[in-house]
Design a protein that fits this description.
The chain is built from one helix and seven strands. By secondary structure, the chain is mostly beta strands. Strands 1, 2, 3, 4, 5, 6 and 7 form a seven-stranded mixed beta sheet that branches. The relative contact order is 0.28.
Amino acid sequence: MSHIVVDGEPLPFTEGQTIAAALVAAGRVAWRTTRINQRPRGVFCGIGVCFDCLVTIDGIGGQRACLVPARPDMTVATEEGDDE
């Protein structure tokens, strides 16, 4: 099984899954918080319309996890404080 690396830890994924799908399949329903009140955010719309599922992928921030297919050895960092 292939893995992505999320916050330094390996996370398995199935071919064809987005990063958001892999996170949810692993039991992570929230992976960032808002600047105001640190409200948890994860996948909301699942189709790239909202910006609740933002992550940093291979050093590039502000990417929507619901739109990016997982690739082996991809490095993902969760984000905090990026939205209201």
